[in-house]
Fold each of these.
Amino acid sequence: MSIRLHNIGKHFGSGRQRTRALEPINLDIQEGELVGLLGPSGSGKTTLLRIIAGLENPDRDGGARILFGDRDVTDVHVRDRRIGFVFQHYALFRHMTVFDNVAFGLTVMPRRNRPTSGEIRARVHRLLEMVQLESLAGRYPAQLSGGQQQRVSLARALALRPDVLLLDEPFGALDAKVRQDLRRWLRHLHDELGFTSLFVTHDQEEALELSDRVAVMSNGRIEQIDTPDDLYRAPGNRFVFEFLGDVNHLEGEVRGGILTCGDARLSVELPDGPEELLLRPHEVRLVEAPSPEARLPATVTAISPVGAEVRVELAADWMAAPWLATVRHADYERLDLRRGQRLYVEPRRWHRFPEGRETRRDAPRASLA
Ligand SMILES: Nc1ncnc2c1ncn2[C@@H]1O[C@H](COP(=O)(O)OP(=O)(O)OP(=O)(O)O)[C@@H](O)[C@H]1O
């Protein structure tokens, strides 16, 4: 079931208390797509999700329309939108077993639509099998871990075979490892059952790992919607670039193809004038000696060798804030990195956003000499 949003704006309050939560938003989600709504706190993610669910009304003056496939659901009650909902805080019925929680929505259906009790039992068992909780069907929510409870919520939301599944920070309250597992679950279930999903998160990694497309929101606007790959490689503006990961800043003055900032110098093919370059931690190399193109001295202030790469924090007078470099373990050993060590940073690539437009360059070619 595709979702089409047309001019969905939202104000809360009235008079002087009136605040805008969403600028009019247009968004098309394809059938079977899994889309992440990503943005900082207060950017409007939850409001947008609640409007799609029918738990909140959009502003009426902008011709707001919500379509599920060909069905206009703008004025359809939440109960009749055929939506599955999963919230951060597992809203399970505490006095019901896992089985009864998952079966609940089916058992309260109007008699004419309700499956037989045999069909309900079969469907619930199949769902519990899918979320691997069959052996816990007789337990009560209090006897489950947070991750297990959230899997029950997922199974319960899917029991009514919704056309659309909406998830609001579904894994927000869980620890890192359980979140990882549940992400795989959700992706797997989504692909197997083929529903259309929209989920809210403020976690960049989660959005990029799980989504077919990510909509990055700020101040009630969608700044950019793209595949994770395109978002990361070709951010549409500075906000998106900075929100999607760690960023190092190099601010200085360009004269005759050389950017100078304190005692740091970098050869650049840019016109004279003030300039700010942005670099991801993996876009810099650490070297023992300066090159003709780059002389950016720095001191190692912290090293974290945990994970696939080593994270190295760097300080220098020319930096407005400490830099972060990620280096391979092999380079970490070769350079024999230690705290207090002095070395040089060599940009391999950088980004700039003049007037909010993104441009990207590979490492400079021209010589400083
Ligand atoms: N019921 C409400 N009444 C008044 N203002 C509201 C209401 N709900 C949300 N807002 C405001 O609307 C804006 C968007 O809020 P929303 O909860 O959608 O953001 P969010 O991106 O989901 O944030 P978070 O990640 O913190 O949940 C915020 O400025 C918020 O204060």
Note: Residues 12-13, 19, 21, 39, 41-47, 202 surround adenosine-5'-triphosphate (CB under 6 Å).
Amino acid sequence: MKRIGYLGPPGTFSEEAARRHRGNGEGELVACASLEEVFARLETGLLEEGVVPVENSSEGAVSVVLDMLAAHPELTVRGEVVMQVVHSLLVPPGVKLEMVEKVLSHPQAFAQCRTFLRQKLAGVELQECASTAAAAALAARCRRPWAALAPLSAASRYNLQVLIPAANDCPHNKTRFWALGRKRVLSPVPPCKTSLIFGVRHRPGALYRVLREFAIREINLTRIESRPSKKGLGDYIFFLDFEGAAGDPVVKEMLDVLTEEHTTTLRVLGSYHVEQE
Ligand SMILES: O=C(O)C(=O)C[C@]1(C(=O)O)C=C[C@@H](O)C=C1
């Protein structure tokens, strides 16, 4: 059976995303201690797929995932899951808001609940954990008035009470996850998107020339992001997503033009079906 890794322990948003990616198909969900571990297990073949967060509607790119993806040329994007993310403030039974001494969570959750924390828990210590569910598990076993920002479903799993059901600052807080693997999806079911990583030469209009190829073919871009190439200051690579599949004749022809004329490197991360909540 296919093994699908995610940032654990059970009860994270990533686990829910992995579950949705699996759908009615077969697959064993495997909890990993960190995102680095998901990539390491994909590399060594201990996992066939890994579901990782790539972008949040309020915080932007999950840079660590983009960088690890760039460092793993064998990996492709096999699917996408977009999920509504609601952080709840969970506490051990009997703990009230004014009693909370410390709040535990993943750094992304803290960032997504910044205003809430400032307004309702000003001055309370924050402790970063490997994931939201790791935070809930620690709050449950510490025997202190410590709260966790975690998915609502983590409350029953870790015997915690829901003090504030929705603590995120943006009501429409969404995170996009990618299912990564070594095998490319050859004929993704429409609607699909394709993702690329590319580099350009340092010359006037280099990025414009790439984007122009999309514009003249009326291909809709859905994201462009730059990340340092790590080769030197001011040297970047670009992550770009667009609507369509790499196998579409128009897209195929455009990718050839980009490779031959406008980029220094171009990697097609994959074409994949887009799942919406
Ligand atoms: O800690 C979790 O529950 C995760 O799945 C990680 C993660 C992330 O890294 O973005 C996933 C979704 C939310 O944006 C907050 C945290």
Note: The pocket of prephenic acid is lined by residues 7, 12-14, 53, 56, 62, 85, 106, 108-109, 131-133, 175 (CB under 6 Å).
Amino acid sequence: MQAIIELKNASVIVENGSEKKTILDDVSLKIFPLDFITIVGGNGAGKSTLFNVISGNLSLTTGEILILGKNMTKKSPQVRSKFISRVFQDPKMGTAPRMTVEENLSIAKLRGKKRTLKITSSKELQERFLTKAKAIGNGLDQRLNSPTGTLSGGQRQVLSLLMATLQKPELLLLDEHTAALDPKTSKTIMSLTDDVIKTEKITSLMITHQMDDALKFGNRLLVMKNGKIVRDLNSEEKTKMKLEDFYRIFE
Ligand SMILES: Nc1ncnc2c1ncn2[C@@H]1O[C@H](COP(=O)(O)OP(=O)(O)OP(=O)(O)O)[C@@H](O)[C@H]1O
């Protein structure tokens, strides 16, 4: 099967003064269509580095990255954004605060296409958005003409998620996207995420510090430590895993 993303012996070495540090250490990984992979690991394990390497925000020191079989190692984040979208931990990151919800949606429509300064409103996109936003019921559908800076964190994260997925990406990167929300909102956004991923059939990677979410969601689980992938568990192995087993891996 053709992998959506393939990393081949990917390493990133950074220099801190005279010291060199390997922050991604010879990682080889294939992400297949419809994979929903959860990623866990302690602070500094290399999870965000992995995302930055995939999105093109951080260059590999050695190794290769292929997207749909094509070598994209030297391609910019803009080129890769045709294939990849990302939702960040900080609700402020995914949207432009002074622009309204509607204007932000128009930007989402342009993702991956040649960017223009003209921001056009798309009726179809707006209708799709409204249907989904209404179903969530957190009032976002009432705020189409409000600047996104005035939305609650939960509303902004729903908007970021919908913006990242209204135009189906080849790969969705979820970077601890529920971590800054209160427990109830976090739960709502997590079940919305799972629902969107399933109904739109979106291949996804999700970093989380919530072990129960890592076990509950997705079909595959990666554990990272010291810049390496130390476990790559399939669904069956994942279901056998208990929280205690997890904590043992981290020890
Ligand atoms: N651009 C960079 N330049 C130098 N060091 C970096 C860079 N990016 C990350 N690092 C370092 O690489 C290591 C891995 O960081 P990374 O952010 O990938 O960890 P993480 O697993 O996402 O951690 P956390 O759970 O705390 O977010 C850390 O020691 C970090 O300081």
Note: The CA atoms of residues 101 and 144 lie 5 Å apart.
Amino acid sequence: MLLGAVADDLTGATDLALTLSREGMRAVQVVGVPPADFDFGDAEAVVVALKSRTIPAAEAVSLSLDAARAILSAGAEQIIFKYCSTFDSTPEGNIGPVAEALAGLLDAPLVLACPAFPANGRTVYQGHLFVGSMLLSDCPMKDHPLTPMTDANLVRVLQQQTKLPVGLIPYSVVDRGGEAIAAAFTEAETKGDRFVIVDAVTEDHLRAIGRAAADMKLITGGSGIAIGLPENFRRAGKLATRKADTTFAAPAGRAAILAGSCSAATRRQIAAAIAAGVPALKIDPIAIAEGNTTAAGVADWLASAGHPHPLAYSSADPDEVRSAQEKLGRDRAGGLVEHLLAEVAITLRENSFSRLIVAGGETSGAVVNGLGVAALRIGPEIDPGVPWTRSLDGGSPIALALKSGNFGADDFFLKAWDQLK
Ligand SMILES: Nc1ncnc2c1ncn2[C@@H]1O[C@H](COP(=O)(O)OP(=O)(O)O)[C@@H](O)[C@H]1O
Ligand SMILES: O=C(O)[C@@H](O)C(=O)COP(=O)(O)O
């Protein structure tokens, strides 16, 4: 193993594993901290998917350290801490505390932080995160049910989560390439910075940052930050030049879509699916709390919907989410939906469903944990950051498209199936 990664949610891990596999590494995604005797096979990159984005910071730190130790002892030479390209976090963390703890474990004097993912419109300029043409704080992430993002200034956001000094490596340096960036790392370290937000607007910037970070033990960011890393191993003669392995066989069986993401993108995808005639059942967290909506009922509805890929969704607009949260509390509302959709997935698999699209990072975490899947193989890309995956264990095989809430074109729920034909 050359590269090991700790990802703070399931869809984020899939996104990163896809990037590494596209860049020619044999990548495997593991769900949860792998046990000491876990067989990573011939993987050159391993991404450990945690569900640590919104749990208490101390728990996130402890899980992330365990995950990092597991991949280090399996031989990883460099560690990526993968978080969301929209820097999803709260004032308490968990990006700062986890990055700090991993830096301690790895004895890393300077930690770079760069969530840029240009293919999905996330760019960082003067330390400010843009989503398309909007500042992060103006985009729909301001209404996220669990991690509303209301400040686009990442130096300020990260500085709130750590006592260690946070600096910036601006566009004017990054645009000059790898050597200038490496010199800026040294300068930042000398100045006493322990974290640096690094601007990046294009994939060329990310490749240059990757090159400059060749000797860093710890790298943090979105999946984009990994684009330039495999080449470092190739240059060092440790990684063969090969094309991404795209062979993928999805198990035959019935299909369904489960959506727990409330993002604007997922809501557009649901609207497009409904407009195209996909039967859709809306799930209300209050009805779950009152016992009027059950997993068995939702699974029955999906099984008898008479369509190749029916949809069950709890996705709702910000006003509806706010109203459910006022009645139930933020965590209970989210937890009820996550638990229900995980139970639905379990029941579906028992009833010969073997192809699922799941929308939402936390939602995917709940579903994959519910299904008891411990590892995933990465298949073909549906849209930037979202591949089909196939369970490697945990009962009868299942094809899963774990879609980050924010990712995917409007027709994602319609077109994704074409790749399984
Ligand atoms: N109608 C709703 N009201 C309140 N919370 C909801 C509702 N539907 C889903 N949720 C919760 O919102 C969270 C969405 O997070 P996630 O699945 O990570 O989506 P995303 O990928 O868009 O961030 C989950 O915890 C989910 O259970
Ligand atoms: O970096 C990203 O945007 C994604 O890989 C990601 O982390 C997904 O998180 P969710 O939006 O919560 O699915």
Note: The chain has a mean pLDDT of 96.
